Amino acid sequence: MGRAEILKAALELPAAEREQLADDLWASLPGETEAEVEQAWAVEIERRIDEADKAVVKSVPWSEVRGEALDAVRRVRGG
Question: Are residues 73 and 40 in the same domain?
């Protein structure tokens, strides 16, 4: 069975089973463990909080970010 056939079969699974399959596949790859990834995210979150507290970065209201994202989607879709 080729990759395309495996993908087609996987996409026919219920969402919960696709999620579990994705987790299983991800866990099979070499690289960082889940604990290492969690630790890296914790460090990144602390860095971002520190930057926000020191006003190193400028926050942008959600309404503005959402509007820009929707505009970008419209441009990509040609509308």
Answer: yes
d(CA 15, CA 22): 10
Q: What gap in Å lies between CA 19 and CA 4, rounded to an integer? A: 18
Does the global pTM surpass 0.90? no
Do residues 36 and 4 both lie within one domain?
no
16-51: per-residue pLDDT in tens? 999 999 999 988 888 778 788 899 999 999 999 999
Residue with tokens 């970008």: 72
SS (H, E, C) 50-74: HHHHCCCCCCCCHHHHHHHHHHHHH
H or E element that contains 79: none
